[in-house]
Design a protein that fits this description.
Strand order of the largest sheet: 1-2-3-5-4
Number of strands: 8
Oligomer: single chain
Number of helices: 5
Radius of gyration: 18 Å
Structural class: alpha+beta
Low-confidence stretches: none
Mean pLDDT: 86
Strand content: 15-25%
Shape: globular
Helix content: 25-40%
Order of helices and strands: EEEHEEEHHEEHH
Length: 210
């Protein structure tokens, strides 16, 4: 018996190079990532990444969305993951959103260090070419927040046999982290120049957006 197609009739909540992300029509806490064209590199890499986590029995999803499996939709096969929202139900904003509003990278230092330690502790080797659109600042309350990586997960390198060995994975994560932070600094500096050079604060950015 054929599986009934899940009907997606809404506009995407996010669009990348290879995939579009939609709100799950039957579960408002989930999102569905669907291929836009023929390219499947990102999806295959992500599936391999989550299979590795499952094999390692990793169950700490504080900084990445949890994966719930594949689903057939009217737009094609999709991957079901957590939808990242703030404590008040609003969509979590990307770091790019904050950079556009004059918030410097230094405002996120504590949250980025927490993310780095999470990557090291769970041997999560990431793609250092991730951009600020894929890093969401999830507010847990008025006082607490964390950064959640929603895309670019999984090692893009062809040879990654040693990624499950803590020593080698740790070295790779640290190397990529330095390049990753450098790219964020460039984004932040570009936005600051466009904004006018006057630093803003996280809470000020939210107030101005409201």
């Amino acid at each position: 018996m054929n599986q009934q197609l899940l009907q997606i009739t809404t506009e995407p909540i996010g669009v990348g190079k290879e995939r579009a992300c939609y709100l799950h029509p039957q579960d408002p806490t989930k999102a569905i990532k669907v291929q836009k064209g023929e390219g499947k590199k990102q999806t295959l890499r992500e599936l391999k990444f989550y299979r590795t986590l499952r094999r390692q029995k990793m169950n700490n999803f504080k900084h990445i969305p949890q994966f719930y499996g594949k689903v057939q939709t009217n737009l094609g096969e999709g991957l079901v993951v957590d939808l990242i929202n703030d404590f008040d139900g609003s969509a979590s904003k990307s770091l790019y959103w904050f950079f556009e509003r004059g918030v410097p990278l230094s405002e996120f230092n504590t949250y980025l260090e927490e993310l780095k330690q999470y990557m090291l502790q769970n041997l999560i080797v990431f793609n250092n070419r991730r951009n600020p659109f894929n890093l969401l600042f999830k507010r847990l309350s008025d006082q607490e927040a964390r950064i959640v990586v929603i895309d670019g997960l999984g090692d893009h390198a062809t040879f990654n046999w040693f990624d499950n060995i803590s020593y080698f994975a740790g070295r790779k994560i640290n190397r990529r982290w330095d390049r990753f932070i450098s790219s964020l600094q460039d984004y932040s500096a570009d936005m600051m120049r466009e904004y006018g050079g006057t630093p803003n604060k996280l809470d000020s950015a939210y107030r101005k957006a409201g």
